[in-house]
Design a protein that fits this description.
The complex is a heterodimer of chains A (285) and B (148). Chain A has 285 residues and is an alpha/beta fold. Chain A has helices at residues 3-16, 78-89, 116-119, 145-148, 154-157, 161-173, 180-183, 209-223, 232-236, 244-258, and strands at 22-28, 35-40, 49-50, 72-76, 98-102, 109-110, 113-114, 131-132. Chain A is 32% helix and 11% strand. Chain B has helices spanning 24-33, 55-63, 84-101, 119-136; strands spanning 15-20, 42-47, 68-73, 109-113. Classes of the chains: A alpha/beta (285), B alpha/beta (148).
Chain lengths: 285, 148
C-alpha cells in the first residue's frame, strides 16, 4: 500500500470511529502540481488527501485556531512536528487533543528545486508522533548537516557590518508588508500582532527601509528560541525575500548561547522564557 | 554649522538610557547627589525593571534618531523582582547578536549592571558609552527619514 493510501485509510478510520472531528492534511490545489491544506471532516472525503514533495505548508499553523475541546488529526513532516512541540511548550495545543500522523519527508520542492530551508534540514522525520505513515526516512545521510552543505550564512557573516547592513536592507527593501510570513507561521498566533496595533504603533505602516527593517528584526526577535526553520514563511513570501537568513541567525544565536534547539523537547521551556544564572554576559558592562 | 561640528571630537551624541528603578536609576541619583561629573549625553527613562525593556524600545529609540541606547539594571542576583534581569539578559543577548548580524555597530546599544551604591560606576559607564558612541558618529542606520 502506498503512503498516500495508508494516509487515507488511517484518516478514514479515525473519522469513521469518531476519534477525531477533523483531519488536517493536504489536497491537490486547482493548478496542477500545487497543494493546499485540506480540512477533512467526513470519512468519504479522505480520498482527497495527498502527500508529496510539494506539501510545504506547515499545517501546525492551524492548530491554535481550533477549539480547545475538539480532537483533530494532523499530518506532520519533521519540521511540522517540531512546530507542534514548540506550541506544546507554549501551551497553545493540548497533546491529548491531537493525533499526529507523522510522515518522513524527502524535502520540499519549489519549481523542481529543493527548498532553501530543506537544504539544512536535520529533522526529516517527526520528533513527536502517534503513528508513522509510510517509511521513516533514513537518517544516516542527514545526520550531520554541516558536513553536507556549506554554511548558508557564511558569505553574509564574512562581510563588514556596513556591507551586511546594506545587503540586508536591499533584501528587506522589497518587502511589501503583506504579512504572508506571519499568516503561515505556526509561531504567530498572537490575537493581536505587533504590526496591527495602532496604540502604541510599534512599527510604522510604510514600506520605507527603516520600517521594513524594524519589522524584520522584531519578527526575528519574536522567533528566537521558537522558530524551527521550516521555511514556510520563506516559501510564502511573494517578493522572494530570504527570510531564512533571519530565522537561521536567531536559531544559531539561541543554540550557541543557550545550547537549546527549538521544537525538540516538549518539557524544556522556550529559551527566552527561561534563564540560567550562568548565561554568558560578555556583552554587558 | 560647519561640517567639522560632526567630527568625533565635537559630536555630542544623544543617548537614551533605560534605567531600572531599583538599582541603576538610584545609582544615577547617587552620582548626582555626589556631584560626580559625567557627560550630559543621556536622556534617562525610568523603567520598573530591566526585564521591562522590550527590544522594541531600544530599536525605536534608534529609529527616532537616538545615536545610542544604554540599558542598565541590577546586578544578576540582585533583581528586585528576583529574576527579571536574568530573563532580560537572555533577550538582550539575542538582540545584541542580532543587531551585530544586521550590521548595526557594536557599541550603538550598550548594556550594563549598576547597583544603587555605584554612583561612580554609573558615571564611568556613561562616560564609556558616550565615548564609544562619539567614536561611531551620528546614527544613520535604522533612522526613519522624515518624508516631505
Amino acid at each position: 500500500m502506498s503512503r498516500e493510501d495508508q494516509l487515507r485509510k488511517r484518516a478514514r478510520d479515525l473519522l469513521a470511529a469518531r476519534e477525531v472531528v477533523m483531519v488536517i492534511g493536504y489536497r491537490a490545489g486547482r493548478r496542477p502540481g500545487t497543494t493546499v491544506p485540506a480540512f477533512i471532516t467526513r470519512p468519504e472525503d479522505t480520498d482527497k488527501l495527498i502527500f508529496n514533495d510539494r506539501c510545504g505548508a506547515n499545517l501546525t499553523a492551524y492548530l491554535p485556531r481550533i477549539p480547545k475541546t475538539a480532537k483533530v488529526a494532523i499530518v506532520a513532516k519533521g519540521c511540522d512536528s517540531r512546530s507542534i512541540v514548540a506550541l506544546l511548550k507554549e501551551k497553545q495545543v493540548e497533546r491529548s487533543k491531537l493525533v499526529i500522523l507523522g510522515v518522513g519527508c524527502e524535502g520540499i520542492k519549489v519549481d523542481g528545486q529543493l527548498s532553501d530551508s530543506c537544504t539544512t534540514c536535520g529533522y526529516p522525520n517527526p520528533v513527536i508522533f502517534d503513528e508513522m505513515v509510510g517509511e521513516t526516512r533514513d537518517m544516516t545521510e542527514t545526520s550531520d548537516v554541516s558536513d553536507r552543505v556549506p554554511d548558508p550564512l557564511a558569505d553574509l557573516e564574512s562581510l563588514s557590518p556596513d556591507e551586511r547592513w546594506h545587503s540586508l536592507m536591499e533584501d528587506v527593501a522589497r518587502c511589501i508588508r503583506c504579512y504572508a510570513c506571519r499568516q503561515v507561521c505556526p509561531n504567530c498566533y498572537c490575537p493581536t500582532c505587533f504590526v496591527d496595533t495602532n496604540n502604541p504603533q510599534w512599527v510604522g505602516k510604510t514600506t520605507a527601509g527603516s520600517d521594513n527593517m524594524l519589522f524584520h528584526l522584531m519578527r526575528a526577535m519574536h522567533m528566537a528560541g521558537r522558530c524551527v526553520e521550516c521555511g514556510t514563511c520563506h516559501r510564502a513570501c511573494p517578493m522572494g525575500i530570504d527570510l531564512m537568513k533571519f530565522n537561521r541567525k536567531v536559531a544559531r544565536i539561541v543554540r550557541d548561547r543557550f545550547g537549546t534547539v527549538a521544537g525538540i523537547d516538549p518539557d524544556e521551556p522556550p529559551a527566552l522564557a527561561a534563564f540560567d544564572p550562568n548565561d554568558r554576559q560578555e556583552f554587558i558592562k | 554649522m560647519s561640517t567639522s561640528d560632526t567630527s568625533a571630537a565635537s559630536f555630542e551624541p544623544k543617548i537614551v538610557a533605560f534605567l531600572c528603578n531599583w538599582c541603576s536609576y538610584a545609582g544615577a541619583d547617587l552620582a548626582g547627589i555626589s556631584r560626580i561629573q559625567y557627560p550630559p549625553s543621556i536622556r534617562v527613562i525610568r523603567v520598573p525593571c530591566s526585564g521591562r525593556v522590550d527590544p522594541f524600545y531600544i530599536l525605536k529609540a534608534l529609529l527616532f534618531g537616538a545615536d545610542g541606547v544604554l540599558v542598565s539594571g541590577c546586578h544578576p542576583g540582585d533583581c528586585h523582582y528576583l529574576t527579571g534581569n536574568y530573563v532580560a539578559r537572555r533577550r538582550f543577548a539575542v538582540l545584541n547578536d542580532l543587531l551585530d548580524f544586521a550590521g548595526i555597530d557594536q557599541g550603538r546599544v550598550s548594556f550594563s549592571w549598576v547597583s544603587a551604591a555605584e554612583g561612580e560606576r554609573f558615571a564611568e559607564v556613561v562616560r564609556e558609552v558616550t565615548e564609544k558612541v562619539r567614536q561611531l558618529g551620528p546614527n544613520h542606520k535604522l533612522v526613519k527619514q522624515e518624508c516631505g
